[in-house]
Amino acid sequence: MSNVVSNIELNEPRFLALLEKLIGESKFLQNNPAQGLIPQEDLAIKHILDVLKPYLKENGGVLEAEKVNFVEGRGNLILRYPGTGSEVCSFVGSHLDVVPADPKGWKRDPFKLMIEGDDLYGRGTTDCLGHVAVLTDLLATLGETKPVLKRSIVVVFIANEENGAFKGIGVDQLAKEGYMEQLKNGPLFWIDAADSQPCIGTAGNASWSLKAVGKLFHSGLPHKGINAIEMAMDAVSYIQSKIFAHLCLVCAGT
Ligand SMILES: [Zn+2]
């Protein structure tokens, strides 16, 4: 049975329940080795997998989960909702660690989710555990409703984003060891925010290809031939002008 994809909406109670658990771990997700704070990202992964459990392949569901640890206790998590084709759409960059919070500077307990009306308080609510909870909820909904999609949806939750003191733990090592290769066949959205609100993407990458076909003609009448390289250059420069015009608008804040 397939459902219409546009029906997908956030399951708010499930989202909040997961976010509460994630923020409840945030004390142990603080990342600042100089202060002796080494995050244990596996604590967050456990809660994510608890939510997704009924929809995982090993339990008769459709979601594929791969936990990748380069350091004990500090995992990355790759989740896939398979599509019917070979292309993908990926959401990468939501990280499981947080920057430290000094409770003395907070009016509320930073390591506990506080819900006041529509406002949510707690370390990592937007950067980035809120995004982790949103994407987990999306995957749970996909696992629950099983819409038929041409593209596979891949989510990569990463360890060690907030501090560069140690290498080889998070996305750098995933890329080095080839885990990101599967994402090249489609757009990639980097989902993270350092601001006070959730966002739909902070950066991204869309791969595309252009094929230009020319026309051969006798060398005595070269003006009757069509040079494919010239056509491709014209087309690319037109596309670039559109991209640069858009970037300028973004920079101007309009
Ligand atoms: Zn972040």
Write a structural description.
By secondary structure, the chain is an alpha/beta fold. 28% of the residues lie in helices and 16% in strands. The chain contains 5 helices and 8 strands, in the order ααβββββαβαββα. It has helices at residues 12-24, 42-52, 129-145, 171-176, 228-251; strands at residues 64-69, 75-81, 88-95, 114-116, 119-121, 152-158, 188-190, 203-205. It has a 6-stranded mixed sheet, with helices on one face. Strands 4-5 form a two-stranded antiparallel ribbon. Helix 1 packs antiparallel against helix 2 (42-52). The longest helix has 24 residues, at 228-251. The radius of gyration is 22 Å and the shape is elongated. The two termini are 43 Å apart. Mean pLDDT is 91; it is low at 249-254. Bound molecules: zinc ion. Zinc ion is lined by residues 95, 127-128, 161, 192, 194.
What's the short version?
By secondary structure, this protein is α/β, with parallel strands linked by helices. 28% of the residues lie in helices and 16% in strands. β4 and β5 (119-121) form a beta hairpin.
List keywords for this structure.
elongated; 8 strands; 5 helices; 28% helix; disordered C terminus; six-stranded mixed β-sheet; alpha/beta; two-stranded antiparallel sheet; binds zinc ion; 254 residues
